[in-house]
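Hey,
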Amino acid sequence: MASSSDVAVDQPGPRVYSTAALATDVEQVCRSLLLPHLDPDEMAVGVRLELLTRAPVPVGETVALQATVARVQPNGLTCEVMARHRGTLVARGSYEQRVVRAAAFRTEVADRGSVADPTRA
């Protein structure tokens, strides 16, 4: 379950559950399906997200997210997701994750961080 506590930035009109908040909630529910299966030196990273919103949800309402495993690959997982508000489908999509070595990923992130030497840009 997710609480629609986010609003679209600079959005005139009614306060609604934003696509950005939905994306975050989808990532969390799908990640929960993969995390228990990772080795201590592994982590999951999102590589693809598709969302189709079908109806607005007012801020403060509860949205039920249901994620199912659609495809298992040797190095990842794809989940299909349905979001419902009061039983009505309000969004659907998929989220793909890849399993990576945690140390190598942290190194890559650090290497892409602030660059003191402009020749490394």
